[in-house]
Amino acid sequence: MHMPALSTRLVPVLLVVLALAACAQTGKVHTGAAALAGWKADAPGVRRHIRPIDVPAPATGNAPETSIASSVKVIPAPQGALPKVPEGFAVQVFAAGFKQPRTLRVAPNGDIFLSESGTGRVLVFRAGTSGTPVTPAVFAENLEKPYGIAFVPPANPRYVYVAASNQVVRYPYRSGDTKAAGPAEVIVANIPTKRHWTRDLAVSRDGQRLFLSVGSGSNLGVDGMPDMTHEQIRQHEAAHGRGAAWGEEENRAVVRVFDPEGKSVRNYATGLRNCSGLAMQPGTDNLWCVVNERDHLGPLVTPDYMARVQEGAFYGWPWYYLGDREDPALIGKRPDLKGQARLPEILIQAHSSALSVAFYDRDAFPSDYRGDAFVALHGSHSRPERTGYKVIRVCVKNGQPTGEYEDFMTGFLVDNDSVWGRPAGVAVTRDGALLVSDDANGTIFRVTRK
Protein backbone atom coordinates (compact mmCIF):
# COMPACT_ATOMS: atom_id res chain seq x y z
CA MET A 1 0.00 0.00 0.00
CA HIS A 2 1.29 3.46 -0.89
CA MET A 3 1.46 5.85 2.06
CA PRO A 4 2.37 9.54 2.10
CA ALA A 5 5.76 10.46 3.41
CA LEU A 6 5.96 10.85 7.19
CA SER A 7 8.41 12.51 9.48
CA THR A 8 11.07 10.02 10.53
CA ARG A 9 10.28 10.98 14.14
CA LEU A 10 6.64 9.97 13.66
CA VAL A 11 7.21 6.61 11.96
CA PRO A 12 8.28 4.66 15.11
CA VAL A 13 5.34 6.14 17.05
CA LEU A 14 2.93 5.15 14.28
CA LEU A 15 4.26 1.58 14.21
CA VAL A 16 3.82 1.24 17.97
CA VAL A 17 0.23 2.55 17.76
CA LEU A 18 -0.63 0.07 15.00
CA ALA A 19 0.88 -2.83 16.91
CA LEU A 20 -1.06 -1.96 20.05
CA ALA A 21 -4.30 -1.52 18.13
CA ALA A 22 -4.21 -5.06 16.78
CA CYS A 23 -5.49 -7.74 19.22
CA ALA A 24 -6.72 -4.87 21.39
CA GLN A 25 -5.70 -6.39 24.71
CA THR A 26 -3.88 -5.16 27.74
CA GLY A 27 -0.99 -6.82 29.52
CA LYS A 28 2.55 -7.83 28.85
CA VAL A 29 3.81 -9.14 25.53
CA HIS A 30 6.34 -11.92 26.07
CA THR A 31 9.54 -11.44 24.10
CA GLY A 32 13.05 -12.89 24.30
CA ALA A 33 13.43 -16.13 26.24
CA ALA A 34 9.92 -15.77 27.72
CA ALA A 35 8.38 -15.91 24.25
CA LEU A 36 10.14 -19.22 23.54
CA ALA A 37 9.10 -20.90 26.80
CA GLY A 38 6.96 -24.03 26.97
CA TRP A 39 3.36 -24.84 27.74
CA LYS A 40 3.25 -23.93 31.44
CA ALA A 41 2.94 -20.24 30.58
CA ASP A 42 0.02 -20.85 28.19
CA ALA A 43 -3.38 -19.33 28.92
CA PRO A 44 -6.00 -17.47 26.91
CA GLY A 45 -4.82 -13.92 26.32
CA VAL A 46 -1.10 -14.60 26.84
CA ARG A 47 0.74 -12.79 24.05
CA ARG A 48 4.09 -13.45 22.42
CA HIS A 49 6.25 -11.70 19.88
CA ILE A 50 9.14 -13.87 18.70
CA ARG A 51 11.80 -12.01 16.74
CA PRO A 52 14.78 -13.54 14.93
CA ILE A 53 17.08 -11.93 17.49
CA ASP A 54 15.32 -13.94 20.23
CA VAL A 55 16.16 -17.33 18.66
CA PRO A 56 19.39 -18.84 20.04
CA ALA A 57 22.13 -20.56 18.11
CA PRO A 58 21.39 -24.20 17.27
CA ALA A 59 22.41 -27.06 19.48
CA THR A 60 25.38 -29.08 18.29
CA GLY A 61 25.97 -32.80 18.05
CA ASN A 62 22.45 -33.83 17.07
CA ALA A 63 22.04 -36.08 14.05
CA PRO A 64 19.59 -34.65 11.52
CA GLU A 65 16.87 -37.21 12.19
CA THR A 66 17.27 -37.48 15.97
CA SER A 67 14.38 -36.43 18.19
CA ILE A 68 15.26 -35.32 21.72
CA ALA A 69 11.96 -36.08 23.40
CA SER A 70 9.29 -38.76 23.43
CA SER A 71 5.85 -38.63 21.93
CA VAL A 72 3.09 -37.35 24.16
CA LYS A 73 0.54 -39.80 25.61
CA VAL A 74 -3.02 -39.17 24.46
CA ILE A 75 -5.58 -39.87 27.18
CA PRO A 76 -9.38 -39.71 27.16
CA ALA A 77 -10.82 -36.30 27.93
CA PRO A 78 -11.46 -35.90 31.66
CA GLN A 79 -15.12 -35.94 32.64
CA GLY A 80 -16.71 -32.63 31.66
CA ALA A 81 -13.45 -31.18 30.38
CA LEU A 82 -13.54 -28.39 27.83
CA PRO A 83 -10.68 -26.32 26.49
CA LYS A 84 -10.07 -22.86 27.92
CA VAL A 85 -11.02 -19.79 25.87
CA PRO A 86 -10.90 -16.06 26.68
CA GLU A 87 -13.40 -14.44 29.00
CA GLY A 88 -16.54 -13.53 27.10
CA PHE A 89 -16.42 -16.65 24.93
CA ALA A 90 -18.07 -20.06 25.31
CA VAL A 91 -16.95 -23.42 23.96
CA GLN A 92 -19.02 -26.54 23.39
CA VAL A 93 -18.64 -29.90 21.69
CA PHE A 94 -20.02 -29.53 18.17
CA ALA A 95 -19.56 -33.17 17.14
CA ALA A 96 -17.54 -36.18 18.27
CA GLY A 97 -16.59 -39.75 17.44
CA PHE A 98 -14.29 -39.15 14.47
CA LYS A 99 -11.04 -40.81 13.47
CA GLN A 100 -8.33 -38.23 12.82
CA PRO A 101 -10.53 -35.25 11.90
CA ARG A 102 -8.31 -32.64 10.29
CA THR A 103 -9.19 -29.88 7.83
CA LEU A 104 -12.45 -27.94 8.20
CA ARG A 105 -13.77 -25.78 5.34
CA VAL A 106 -17.03 -23.84 5.03
CA ALA A 107 -18.84 -23.85 1.68
CA PRO A 108 -20.35 -20.61 0.33
CA ASN A 109 -23.82 -21.75 1.44
CA GLY A 110 -22.56 -22.33 5.00
CA ASP A 111 -22.28 -26.12 4.94
CA ILE A 112 -19.23 -27.39 6.84
CA PHE A 113 -16.88 -29.88 5.18
CA LEU A 114 -14.49 -32.05 7.20
CA SER A 115 -11.58 -34.21 6.07
CA GLU A 116 -11.65 -37.30 8.27
CA SER A 117 -8.14 -38.37 7.34
CA GLY A 118 -8.19 -41.56 9.40
CA THR A 119 -11.11 -43.08 7.47
CA GLY A 120 -10.45 -41.66 4.00
CA ARG A 121 -13.74 -39.74 4.02
CA VAL A 122 -14.93 -36.19 3.49
CA LEU A 123 -17.97 -35.38 5.64
CA VAL A 124 -20.56 -32.58 5.48
CA PHE A 125 -22.51 -30.86 8.24
CA ARG A 126 -25.51 -28.84 7.09
CA ALA A 127 -25.42 -25.09 7.62
CA GLY A 128 -26.96 -23.92 10.87
CA THR A 129 -26.16 -27.02 12.91
CA SER A 130 -24.94 -25.91 16.32
CA GLY A 131 -26.24 -28.32 18.93
CA THR A 132 -25.24 -31.85 19.82
CA PRO A 133 -25.31 -34.55 18.71
CA VAL A 134 -24.60 -33.62 15.09
CA THR A 135 -24.41 -36.39 12.49
CA PRO A 136 -22.68 -35.53 9.21
CA ALA A 137 -23.30 -36.92 5.76
CA VAL A 138 -20.57 -38.73 3.81
CA PHE A 139 -19.72 -36.56 0.81
CA ALA A 140 -16.88 -38.75 -0.50
CA GLU A 141 -14.87 -41.76 0.64
CA ASN A 142 -12.11 -44.22 -0.31
CA LEU A 143 -9.45 -41.49 -0.35
CA GLU A 144 -5.88 -41.83 0.88
CA LYS A 145 -5.62 -39.50 3.88
CA PRO A 146 -7.78 -36.66 2.55
CA TYR A 147 -6.79 -33.24 3.86
CA GLY A 148 -7.20 -30.06 1.79
CA ILE A 149 -10.64 -28.98 0.49
CA ALA A 150 -11.42 -26.19 -1.98
CA PHE A 151 -14.60 -24.93 -3.65
CA VAL A 152 -14.23 -23.91 -7.30
CA PRO A 153 -15.22 -21.33 -8.44
CA PRO A 154 -15.14 -19.88 -4.91
CA ALA A 155 -18.39 -17.87 -4.97
CA ASN A 156 -20.63 -20.35 -6.80
CA PRO A 157 -18.77 -23.66 -6.90
CA ARG A 158 -19.36 -26.35 -9.50
CA TYR A 159 -16.67 -28.60 -8.02
CA VAL A 160 -15.25 -29.64 -4.68
CA TYR A 161 -11.52 -30.33 -4.90
CA VAL A 162 -9.94 -32.64 -2.33
CA ALA A 163 -6.20 -33.11 -1.80
CA ALA A 164 -5.36 -36.61 -0.64
CA SER A 165 -1.82 -37.58 0.24
CA ASN A 166 -1.19 -39.04 -3.25
CA GLN A 167 -3.36 -36.96 -5.58
CA VAL A 168 -5.81 -34.09 -6.03
CA VAL A 169 -9.29 -35.05 -7.18
CA ARG A 170 -12.47 -33.12 -7.80
CA TYR A 171 -16.16 -33.96 -7.53
CA PRO A 172 -19.08 -32.30 -9.34
CA TYR A 173 -21.02 -30.19 -6.87
CA ARG A 174 -24.04 -27.96 -6.57
CA SER A 175 -24.74 -25.78 -3.55
CA GLY A 176 -26.33 -27.87 -0.83
CA ASP A 177 -25.08 -31.26 -2.05
CA THR A 178 -24.22 -33.55 0.85
CA LYS A 179 -23.01 -36.35 -1.41
CA ALA A 180 -20.72 -35.97 -4.41
CA ALA A 181 -22.79 -35.76 -7.60
CA GLY A 182 -20.33 -37.92 -9.52
CA PRO A 183 -17.14 -39.97 -9.23
CA ALA A 184 -13.73 -38.53 -8.39
CA GLU A 185 -11.82 -37.03 -11.31
CA VAL A 186 -8.05 -37.02 -10.88
CA ILE A 187 -6.62 -33.53 -11.48
CA VAL A 188 -3.08 -33.88 -10.07
CA ALA A 189 -1.69 -37.42 -9.90
CA ASN A 190 1.35 -39.17 -8.45
CA ILE A 191 2.12 -36.90 -5.52
CA PRO A 192 4.93 -38.54 -3.49
CA THR A 193 3.74 -39.78 -0.10
CA LYS A 194 6.87 -40.43 1.94
CA ARG A 195 6.77 -38.77 5.39
CA HIS A 196 4.78 -35.51 5.28
CA TRP A 197 1.34 -36.22 3.83
CA THR A 198 -0.79 -33.15 4.67
CA ARG A 199 -1.74 -31.71 1.27
CA ASP A 200 -3.69 -28.49 1.68
CA LEU A 201 -5.50 -26.48 -1.01
CA ALA A 202 -6.40 -22.85 -1.62
CA VAL A 203 -7.95 -21.12 -4.61
CA SER A 204 -7.57 -17.64 -6.07
CA ARG A 205 -10.56 -15.29 -5.98
CA ASP A 206 -11.20 -15.68 -9.71
CA GLY A 207 -11.05 -19.47 -9.45
CA GLN A 208 -8.38 -19.72 -12.15
CA ARG A 209 -5.51 -20.89 -9.95
CA LEU A 210 -5.38 -23.53 -7.24
CA PHE A 211 -2.52 -23.88 -4.80
CA LEU A 212 -1.28 -27.18 -3.35
CA SER A 213 1.12 -27.65 -0.46
CA VAL A 214 3.51 -30.61 -0.61
CA GLY A 215 5.75 -31.12 2.42
CA SER A 216 9.25 -32.55 2.36
CA GLY A 217 10.03 -36.26 2.39
CA SER A 218 12.56 -35.92 5.21
CA ASN A 219 13.67 -33.68 8.02
CA LEU A 220 16.55 -32.20 6.06
CA GLY A 221 17.00 -34.02 2.76
CA VAL A 222 20.67 -34.79 3.38
CA ASP A 223 20.41 -38.45 2.36
CA GLY A 224 18.10 -38.00 -0.61
CA MET A 225 19.82 -35.14 -2.46
CA PRO A 226 23.09 -36.12 -4.18
CA ASP A 227 25.55 -33.35 -4.96
CA MET A 228 25.08 -31.51 -8.25
CA THR A 229 27.33 -29.20 -10.21
CA HIS A 230 26.63 -25.47 -10.44
CA GLU A 231 25.39 -25.96 -13.99
CA GLN A 232 23.10 -28.81 -12.96
CA ILE A 233 21.69 -26.68 -10.15
CA ARG A 234 21.14 -23.76 -12.55
CA GLN A 235 19.22 -25.96 -14.96
CA HIS A 236 17.22 -27.55 -12.15
CA GLU A 237 16.21 -24.18 -10.70
CA ALA A 238 15.23 -22.87 -14.12
CA ALA A 239 12.57 -25.59 -14.22
CA HIS A 240 11.67 -25.92 -10.53
CA GLY A 241 12.28 -22.53 -8.91
CA ARG A 242 14.96 -20.78 -6.88
CA GLY A 243 16.29 -22.98 -4.08
CA ALA A 244 14.18 -25.96 -5.14
CA ALA A 245 15.33 -29.29 -3.70
CA TRP A 246 16.08 -32.28 -5.93
CA GLY A 247 16.54 -36.04 -5.86
CA GLU A 248 14.02 -37.63 -3.50
CA GLU A 249 12.89 -34.11 -2.57
CA GLU A 250 12.05 -32.95 -6.10
CA ASN A 251 8.78 -30.97 -6.11
CA ARG A 252 8.59 -31.29 -2.34
CA ALA A 253 8.84 -28.65 0.39
CA VAL A 254 6.91 -26.42 -1.99
CA VAL A 255 3.60 -24.79 -2.74
CA ARG A 256 2.53 -25.73 -6.26
CA VAL A 257 0.05 -23.95 -8.52
CA PHE A 258 -2.21 -25.47 -11.16
CA ASP A 259 -5.18 -24.58 -13.34
CA PRO A 260 -8.63 -26.08 -12.55
CA GLU A 261 -8.16 -28.80 -15.18
CA GLY A 262 -4.70 -29.77 -13.95
CA LYS A 263 -3.12 -29.17 -17.36
CA SER A 264 -0.33 -27.01 -15.96
CA VAL A 265 1.29 -27.82 -12.62
CA ARG A 266 4.41 -26.01 -11.43
CA ASN A 267 6.15 -24.83 -8.29
CA TYR A 268 4.87 -21.50 -7.01
CA ALA A 269 7.19 -21.11 -3.98
CA THR A 270 10.03 -23.24 -2.60
CA GLY A 271 11.91 -23.94 0.62
CA LEU A 272 8.78 -24.49 2.76
CA ARG A 273 9.61 -27.63 4.74
CA ASN A 274 6.02 -28.59 5.52
CA CYS A 275 3.34 -26.05 4.71
CA SER A 276 0.47 -27.89 6.37
CA GLY A 277 -2.12 -25.11 6.14
CA LEU A 278 -3.01 -22.70 3.33
CA ALA A 279 -5.46 -19.80 3.36
CA MET A 280 -6.37 -16.87 1.16
CA GLN A 281 -6.64 -13.61 3.06
CA PRO A 282 -10.26 -12.45 2.60
CA GLY A 283 -10.80 -9.79 -0.03
CA THR A 284 -7.31 -10.29 -1.49
CA ASP A 285 -5.23 -12.74 -3.48
CA ASN A 286 -2.69 -12.88 -0.65
CA LEU A 287 -1.85 -16.54 -0.03
CA TRP A 288 -0.63 -17.51 3.46
CA CYS A 289 0.67 -20.74 4.89
CA VAL A 290 1.69 -22.13 8.27
CA VAL A 291 4.86 -24.21 8.26
CA ASN A 292 6.40 -26.96 10.40
CA GLU A 293 10.12 -26.32 10.49
CA ARG A 294 13.02 -28.79 10.92
CA ASP A 295 13.58 -30.72 14.14
CA HIS A 296 17.26 -31.35 14.72
CA LEU A 297 18.61 -27.95 15.82
CA GLY A 298 17.54 -28.07 19.47
CA PRO A 299 14.48 -27.47 21.67
CA LEU A 300 14.19 -23.76 20.85
CA VAL A 301 15.29 -23.82 17.21
CA THR A 302 13.92 -23.18 14.72
CA PRO A 303 10.50 -21.54 15.05
CA ASP A 304 7.51 -22.74 13.10
CA TYR A 305 5.98 -19.85 11.22
CA MET A 306 3.19 -18.22 9.26
CA ALA A 307 4.25 -16.56 6.02
CA ARG A 308 2.77 -14.89 3.01
CA VAL A 309 3.52 -17.13 0.05
CA GLN A 310 4.83 -15.02 -2.81
CA GLU A 311 5.30 -16.32 -6.33
CA GLY A 312 8.91 -17.31 -7.01
CA ALA A 313 9.95 -16.82 -3.38
CA PHE A 314 12.36 -19.14 -1.56
CA TYR A 315 11.91 -19.71 2.20
CA GLY A 316 15.15 -21.46 3.11
CA TRP A 317 14.68 -25.20 3.51
CA PRO A 318 16.87 -27.19 3.66
CA TRP A 319 19.93 -24.94 3.51
CA TYR A 320 18.83 -21.90 5.49
CA TYR A 321 16.38 -20.86 8.17
CA LEU A 322 15.33 -17.47 9.58
CA GLY A 323 16.69 -15.78 6.52
CA ASP A 324 20.47 -16.15 6.28
CA ARG A 325 21.14 -18.69 9.06
CA GLU A 326 22.74 -21.77 7.55
CA ASP A 327 21.69 -25.17 8.76
CA PRO A 328 24.72 -26.70 10.55
CA ALA A 329 24.37 -29.93 8.56
CA LEU A 330 24.62 -28.06 5.24
CA ILE A 331 27.13 -25.29 5.87
CA GLY A 332 28.80 -24.13 2.69
CA LYS A 333 26.56 -26.22 0.40
CA ARG A 334 24.65 -23.33 -1.16
CA PRO A 335 26.45 -19.98 -0.68
CA ASP A 336 24.65 -18.72 -3.78
CA LEU A 337 21.38 -18.76 -1.80
CA LYS A 338 22.64 -16.50 0.97
CA GLY A 339 20.41 -13.44 1.10
CA GLN A 340 17.73 -15.16 -1.01
CA ALA A 341 15.54 -16.72 1.71
CA ARG A 342 12.42 -14.75 2.59
CA LEU A 343 11.88 -14.12 6.31
CA PRO A 344 8.43 -15.13 7.62
CA GLU A 345 6.04 -12.55 9.04
CA ILE A 346 5.08 -14.53 12.18
CA LEU A 347 7.44 -16.76 14.17
CA ILE A 348 5.81 -19.39 16.40
CA GLN A 349 7.40 -21.36 19.25
CA ALA A 350 9.67 -24.04 17.83
CA HIS A 351 8.18 -27.51 17.25
CA SER A 352 4.59 -26.34 17.88
CA SER A 353 3.48 -28.15 14.69
CA ALA A 354 1.26 -25.53 13.07
CA LEU A 355 -1.35 -27.38 11.00
CA SER A 356 -4.03 -24.98 9.77
CA VAL A 357 -4.94 -21.31 9.47
CA ALA A 358 -8.21 -19.41 9.00
CA PHE A 359 -8.80 -15.66 8.85
CA TYR A 360 -11.67 -14.21 10.86
CA ASP A 361 -13.94 -12.28 8.48
CA ARG A 362 -17.24 -12.17 10.42
CA ASP A 363 -18.80 -9.86 13.01
CA ALA A 364 -19.84 -12.21 15.83
CA PHE A 365 -16.57 -11.79 17.76
CA PRO A 366 -15.41 -8.41 19.09
CA SER A 367 -14.52 -5.96 16.33
CA ASP A 368 -10.77 -6.15 16.92
CA TYR A 369 -10.84 -9.83 15.90
CA ARG A 370 -11.89 -9.02 12.35
CA GLY A 371 -9.00 -9.63 9.96
CA ASP A 372 -6.96 -11.61 12.49
CA ALA A 373 -6.03 -15.24 11.86
CA PHE A 374 -6.49 -18.37 13.94
CA VAL A 375 -3.82 -21.08 13.77
CA ALA A 376 -4.11 -24.62 15.16
CA LEU A 377 -0.94 -25.88 16.83
CA HIS A 378 -0.96 -29.67 16.94
CA GLY A 379 1.83 -29.91 19.52
CA SER A 380 5.49 -30.80 19.87
CA HIS A 381 7.37 -34.03 20.25
CA SER A 382 10.96 -32.88 19.71
CA ARG A 383 11.56 -30.75 22.78
CA PRO A 384 11.59 -31.78 26.45
CA GLU A 385 9.08 -29.12 27.54
CA ARG A 386 6.03 -29.26 25.28
CA THR A 387 4.79 -26.46 23.08
CA GLY A 388 1.68 -26.14 20.97
CA TYR A 389 -1.47 -28.11 21.81
CA LYS A 390 -3.49 -24.92 21.45
CA VAL A 391 -5.08 -22.47 19.04
CA ILE A 392 -3.48 -19.06 18.69
CA ARG A 393 -4.77 -15.76 17.34
CA VAL A 394 -2.36 -13.96 15.01
CA CYS A 395 -2.67 -10.18 15.30
CA VAL A 396 -3.25 -8.40 11.99
CA LYS A 397 -3.49 -4.64 11.49
CA ASN A 398 -4.45 -3.06 8.17
CA GLY A 399 -3.97 -6.42 6.49
CA GLN A 400 -0.46 -6.99 7.82
CA PRO A 401 0.58 -9.16 10.80
CA THR A 402 2.18 -7.19 13.62
CA GLY A 403 4.43 -10.09 14.66
CA GLU A 404 2.42 -10.81 17.80
CA TYR A 405 0.13 -13.70 18.56
CA GLU A 406 -1.89 -14.65 21.60
CA ASP A 407 -3.21 -17.87 23.05
CA PHE A 408 -6.90 -18.34 22.27
CA MET A 409 -7.72 -21.97 23.12
CA THR A 410 -5.59 -23.85 25.65
CA GLY A 411 -5.96 -26.43 28.43
CA PHE A 412 -5.42 -29.70 26.56
CA LEU A 413 -2.20 -30.66 28.37
CA VAL A 414 -2.68 -32.45 31.69
CA ASP A 415 1.06 -32.51 32.35
CA ASN A 416 4.21 -32.55 30.24
CA ASP A 417 3.59 -36.14 29.13
CA SER A 418 -0.19 -36.37 28.82
CA VAL A 419 -2.71 -34.59 26.61
CA TRP A 420 -6.41 -35.02 25.92
CA GLY A 421 -6.66 -32.93 22.76
CA ARG A 422 -4.56 -31.86 19.77
CA PRO A 423 -5.96 -29.02 17.64
CA ALA A 424 -5.74 -29.80 13.93
CA GLY A 425 -8.21 -27.75 11.89
CA VAL A 426 -9.80 -24.30 12.24
CA ALA A 427 -12.65 -22.71 10.31
CA VAL A 428 -14.95 -19.72 10.69
CA THR A 429 -18.63 -20.52 10.13
CA ARG A 430 -21.09 -18.29 8.31
CA ASP A 431 -22.61 -17.19 11.64
CA GLY A 432 -19.18 -16.19 12.96
CA ALA A 433 -18.38 -19.11 15.27
CA LEU A 434 -14.94 -20.73 15.30
CA LEU A 435 -14.73 -24.49 14.76
CA VAL A 436 -11.67 -26.43 15.96
CA SER A 437 -11.04 -30.09 15.17
CA ASP A 438 -9.14 -32.22 17.68
CA ASP A 439 -7.67 -35.33 16.11
CA ALA A 440 -6.49 -36.87 19.38
CA ASN A 441 -9.94 -37.77 20.67
CA GLY A 442 -11.90 -37.17 17.47
CA THR A 443 -13.84 -34.10 18.55
CA ILE A 444 -14.90 -30.81 16.97
CA PHE A 445 -15.34 -27.81 19.24
CA ARG A 446 -17.44 -24.71 18.54
CA VAL A 447 -16.47 -21.36 20.06
CA THR A 448 -18.98 -18.54 20.25
CA ARG A 449 -19.22 -15.18 21.95
CA LYS A 450 -21.39 -15.19 25.06
Question: Quick summary of this structure?
Answer:
By secondary structure, the chain is mainly beta. The protein has helices at about 10-20, 30-35, 230-240; strands spanning about 30, 45-50, 75, 90-95, 100-105, 110-115, 120-125, 135-140, 150, 160-165, 170, 185-190, 200-205, 210-215, 255-260, 265-270, 275-280, 285-290, 305-310, 320, 325, 345-350, 355-360, 375, 390-395, 400-410, 415, 420, 425-430, 435-440, 445-450.
Compile the SSE list and pairings.
Blueprint: H1 10-21, E1 29-30, H2 32-36, E2 47-49, E3 73-74, E4 89-96, E5 101-106, E6 112-116, E7 121-125, E8 137-140, E9 148-152, E10 159-163, E11 168-172, E12 185-188, E13 201-203, E14 210-214, H3 230-240, E15 254-258, E16 265-270, E17 275-280, E18 287-291, E19 304-308, E20 320-321, E21 325-326, E22 346-348, E23 354-359, E24 373-377, E25 390-397, E26 400-409, E27 413-415, E28 418-419, E29 423-428, E30 434-438, E31 443-449
Parallel strand pairs: 1-2, 3-28
Antiparallel strand pairs: 2-26, 4-31, 5-6, 6-7, 7-8, 9-10, 10-11, 11-12, 13-14, 14-15, 15-16, 17-18, 18-19, 19-22, 20-21, 23-24, 24-25, 25-26, 27-28, 29-30, 30-31
